[in-house]
Amino acid sequence: MKRNVLVFVLVVALLTGLVAVPVMANDEKPYIAMIALGYGHQFWQAVRMGAEQAAEEFGVRITFEGPEDETMVDRQVDMLKTALANKPQAIAMAAIDTESVAGILQEAKAEGIVVVGFDAGVGDAESDAKVSTDSVEAGRLAAENAARLLNNEGKIGIIGHSQTTIDAVQRVIGFQEKIAEFPGIQIVDIQYGEGDHLRSAEIAKTMTLAHADIDLIYTSNEGSCVGAYIGLREVGKIRDIMLVGFDSSAAMKDGIRTGEIVGAITQDPVGMGYKTVEAAVKLLNGEQVDSFIDTGCYWYDASNMDADHIAPLLYD
Amino acid sequence: MTQTKTLGKRLTGTEFSHKLIIIAVLVLLVVFFYIMNPNYLSYGNIMTILLATCVNGMLALGVSFVIFTGGIDISVGAVMTFSSVMSGVALTRWGFPLPAAILFGILVGGFCGAVSGIGVTKMFLPPFIATMAMQMITKGLSLVVSNMRPIYFTSEPVYQRIATGSFLGISGFHNAIVILIAVTIIAYILFSKTLIGRYSLAIGSNEEAARLSGVNVDRWKIGIYALGGLFAGVGGLIMSSRLGSAQPQLGVGYELEAIAAAVIGGSSLSGGEGSIPGTIIGALIISSLTNGLRIMSVPTELQSAFVGIVLAFAVYFDQMRKKR
């Protein structure tokens, strides 16, 4: 009996949802549906902020969603299907798995819907334009600065956050490629902590034990960096080992301000959101846009983090 | 009653030999890694391993009681995160004083556990489903309540010292380790000296028999799930204290590691079997193993495989021992 009540409540809730969505969608403005790799992380919220800003300026309506976890391929496919059911004029997407959405996006394109990839993007065949950070380039920029800080000599450990997500992999590949140009610098260990703060903290601690002569640790996202920061502090080595990070957060900014984190790479998530919507709007108006729009990346440290061109790119 | 008592006695006998096996496994691992790299047994690294055991150990202790009853709780990771987020909200937004905020967070954990327990007993949901629902609910609520941002405790320097301060000023000996030891002792007392331990095993080995001998199974189960939630809440306290922040998207996969610790420690997923010392040794095996593999610079993807192998063999040896 009780179970029936529960089922009934769920069904009613679902139906209300189904009815409510098209009602809300009844709007004259062009509609752009954005689907990100994730949702909770500050990075996506910053992308969303930029997108909303552009939507306001260009007079379009956007929705922004993403699965809770950057591995939920199915959830993302469902989100895409639901979004298409609401008849958007354009889809902007960062696909977890480009293959799994290729078919759906091709159909959408055939119906005249504009498809823009952002961040991880979508398959080349499906996309009208891609708006993203060049992650290999970002890794190389981190490596250049690491080499400078090491005076071209020393040992490096890497704490990555994913071995499967393409831009995570590219951040490490770019770093390795550039470091290979410095014969005096060696990469002695690479471990992956899933961007989980605690796991990354444990990894950093064991790294200092396994390689007592390590000079610098490069981390490939916010979780890895803050994790390593906590780990190094716990073993009292934060001042002995240089820590290079990626992205930003309140904790990272604090660390960088005190110099305990020597510097980090920031992308321009707000600009990415903005340029994605801008590109979609231009395509909707029949204008030409470049097939790849690089939103850039920057090195920041205690000396320049308050500068006019950096401060707006850092988020809490 | 007599039935459950004799049952309890028989189990204590087999538990003892299982404990010997896993202690042997732990010693073997430690010796192996020590030979590979003598730094493994340095004071600093022992403390690193113990500190790394804290969060998982706490979750494993909580989930053990649930597993004893033949249930499972896959929400502990998400509940842990939710507890820490709620502490953070109470502290930073609602202006709770620090001790009240901490207590509130732990109680939120207990409440979530109790709700899972009600789902299992009163709504007849299988434990896996009830706690999966709780996992999804708390995961979502953590994001909603925190507005998808970490909640920082930087305004309360005391908060970080709860876990990372040095106990009695001994360098490297973090308070979190003391908390883990204290909670383990409490769990052990609950397990061996109170009805919670006896009834959870009795419910797990034969729920109907327990019911017939006058145990209010539903009430005890709700209490036991709530207890698991409280432990997750303490885990959340330690985690957020170490990080200096409550991270709303953290905790993914933590429940599986906690369950693995309980299983390596001799808990049977079909219930009625297991012990608190076993669970804590199980948690130590996982963290010693992960730490050692990292020190040997074993690639991350293989580390997970090694933990899986140890898990499989721990249960295999146990099955063999029982067959004999």
Notes on the structure:
The complex is a heterodimer of chains A (316) and B (324). Chain A is an alpha/beta fold and 316 residues long. Chain A has 2 domains: 2-133 and 269-285, Response regulator (Rossmann fold), CATH 3.40.50; 135-267 and 302-313, Response regulator (Rossmann fold), CATH 3.40.50. Chain A contains 10 helices and 12 strands. A 6-stranded parallel β-sheet of chain A has the order 2-1-3-4-5-11, with helices on both faces. The longest helix of chain A is centred in the N-terminal third of the chain and has 24 residues, at 2-25. The radius of gyration of chain A is 22 Å and the shape is globular. The model of chain A is unreliable at 22-26 (pLDDT under 50). Chain B is mostly helical and 324 residues long. Chain B has 13 helices and 2 strands; from the N terminus they run H-H-H-H-H-E-H-H-H-H-H-E-H-H-H. In chain B, helix 1 runs parallel beside helix 12 (276-295) and helix 6 (157-164) packs across helix 10 (217-243). Chains A and B meet through helix 1, strand 7, helix 7, helix 8 and helix 9 of A and helix 2, helix 5, helix 10 and helix 12 of B.
